[in-house]
From TrEMBL:
This is Phosphonopyruvate hydrolase. The keyword Hydrolase applies. It comes from Bordetella genomosp. 4. InterPro entries: ICL/PEPM, PPH, Pyrv/PenolPyrv_kinase-like_dom, Pyrv_kinase-like_dom_sf. Belongs to the isocitrate lyase/PEP mutase superfamily. PEP mutase family.
């Protein structure tokens, strides 16, 4: 099966699909090795890796080329986080085939205004576009894809914006009607109660997508038992793990005045060379160098 078919079949199967965030090919490769079903091409993580806010500061081209780079390394589907679609429905109609050609198997687009503010920022500016406007963007995305198995996911930010369950459900159903293959419902509450209420009441036919960053107590077993969720995304754990590890190592080197103590705790240079695909390169050398 193609990567697109793998993701499409997972959504149709009713079995929970897991996706881990990544911000470069190395983190994507590590996620695949760990056993995740797919990669979340996270705008938040990529912005963080450039040390800029997650507020549409990076260009579409920067994000697109990172998706292409990751897709060339991993054999599992990539779900590209395209924020608000980098413009209106005309922009969306243009860029979705670009992401498809780059090797992504899905896009997730959210119903906030451009430029966006990151969802979990305290006191963030969470402004939503009109339902009809976002329906047009979803319809444009669905119409422009070349492969029918390419997945279009609509992200509902009504709970993030404090607009309540009724508005969130209204928007989710409207986006399903416009052609979304799944609905990502997001929440910044520290417990899963708000999300669980939405899931239990969800009357739509398409599966839901959850990102349990703010409510980490909800396990995959809990999510599977709900029966309406097709994908769980771990949205920022790669960059948080990387930052935490680097802060710890850098601080120890400064305390110790050298790398003697910390060196034994780190992956070896040989392990990194292995992750770089050195063995495959040597096979190419042996075969083709004259």
């Amino acid at each position: 099966m193609t990567k697109n078919q793998i993701l499409r079949n997972a959504l149709n199967s009713g079995k929970l699909f897991t996706a881990m965030a990544a911000h470069n090919p190395l983190s994507a490769k590590l996620a695949e090795q760990a056993g995740f079903g797919g990669i979340w091409g996270s705008g938040f993580e990529l912005s963080a890796s450039y040390a800029v806010p997650d507020a549409n500061i990076l260009s579409m081209g920067t994000h697109l080329e990172m998706m292409r780079a990751m897709a060339s390394i991993v054999s599992i589907p990539i779900i590209a986080d395209i924020d608000t679609g980098f413009g209106n429905a005309v922009n969306v109609h243009y860029i979705v085939p670009q992401y498809e050609a780059a090797g992504a198997s899905a896009i997730v687009m959210e119903d906030k205004t451009f430029p966006k503010d990151t969802s979990l920022r305290a006191n963030g500016r969470q402004e939503l576009v009109r339902i009809e406007e976002f329906q047009g963007k979803i319809a444009a995305a669905a119409a422009s894809r070349k492969d029918k198995d390419f997945v279009v996911i609509a992200r509902v930010e009504a709970l993030i914006a404090g607009l309540g369950q009724e508005e969130a459900t209204k928007r989710g159903l409207a986006y399903e009607e416009a052609g979304a293959d799944a609905i990502l419902i997001h929440s910044k509450q520290k417990t899963p109660d708000e999300i669980l209420a939405f899931v239990h009441a969800w009357p739509g036919k398409v599966p839901l997508v959850l990102v349990p960053t703010a409510y980490p107590a909800l396990t995959e077993a809990d999510i599977s038992a709900l029966g309406k969720v097709g994908v769980v995304i771990y949205g920022n754990h790669a960059i948080r793990a990387a930052v935490g590890a680097m802060q710890k190592v850098f601080a120890q080197i400064r305390r110790d005045g050298g790398i003697r103590e910390v060196d034994a705790e780190l992956p070896t240079v040989g392990e990194i060379i292995g992750l770089q695909g050195d063995e495959a390169m040597r096979r190419v050398e042996k075969r083709f160098l004259r």
